[in-house]
């Protein structure tokens, strides 16, 4: 194998994770079993990041970021739907909690960590304001339509959409996400490419040999295996998470936060590693693309699934979460518009992320 698959563990760990998923599916986990699965899950996340970077180097940006974001989100949506089907009314807010958590993690956690990593190495992080600004506008629009408006509509009881409103939100979300993908990959691809610094390539990796088609196909297959294993193991661990949350007296919404943290680990690690190579635009592509995919694919799927899902589907956010969401978009706009950021911006995003986590635990 080439140097892109130089380490045996990048193939062995996803295979082990898939085997662990098969053996643990439908079983009650002991404490030691849950710990072992958590270690295997972490290894599968690292392997997923490796294979995603191989694919990204083969297909180039922004296609590489898009592959990882869409792959993770598709499986995340499957996880949400399966948990809602098996959980009944107890999971009425799971889709809302997970999607909101995904937006906060991507727009504050991933962006904050990426800017921190980039600005510690160089004083200023550079990126394309045109592409990142357009992506942020789409994320803000989708978030408001899907998570804020249900709180104020009156056609259905509670913070929920009526069937017609849900159908409109689903079609609108899918259409806007499709338009974003077209813009990112075809019409304005150059807006989403890393910004050269002083006329020089941003990373020596750009001169590395391009992986062969065979290597890329192997990485694509192992990426899918790793991602299925990550989300499947997260589902297996979810009863332990729910039990722990209840035992600690924490709100039910914490379950959605933990699930989002687990499934977004690959994007987080990939974004931070890109930032360390001074490819801040790749980090922003991953962060905003993941937020966009999380909403743009989740809402249409939930709309279709609501045909057979039992119980209410609560999508509207409460007052505290709406304040956090609004502040996040204001701050992210001020970060993105100049096309450059410093250590201060990373600190602001990380403080907002910490506030989100704290208020999730102590509302």
From TrEMBL:
Annotated membrane topology: Multi-pass membrane protein
GO molecular function, one term: potassium:proton antiporter activity
Signal peptide boundaries: none
Domain Sodium/calcium exchanger membrane region: 32-185, 219-361
Record key words, sorted: Membrane, Transmembrane, Transmembrane helix
InterPro entries the UniProt entry points to: Alkaline_pH_Ca-Antiporter, NaCa_Exmemb
Keyword presence, Membrane: yes
Gene Ontology terms: cellular component: plasma membrane
Principal subcellular localization: membrane
Membrane spanning stretches: 34-54, 66-87, 99-120, 132-152, 164-182, 217-234, 254-272, 284-308, 314-336, 343-361
Superkingdom of the organism of origin: Bacteria
Alphabetized PANTHER family for the sequence: SODIUM-POTASSIUM/PROTON ANTIPORTER CHAA, SODIUM-POTASSIUM_PROTON ANTIPORTER CHAA
UniProt name for this protein: Ca2+:H+ antiporter
Species annotation: Nonomuraea muscovyensis
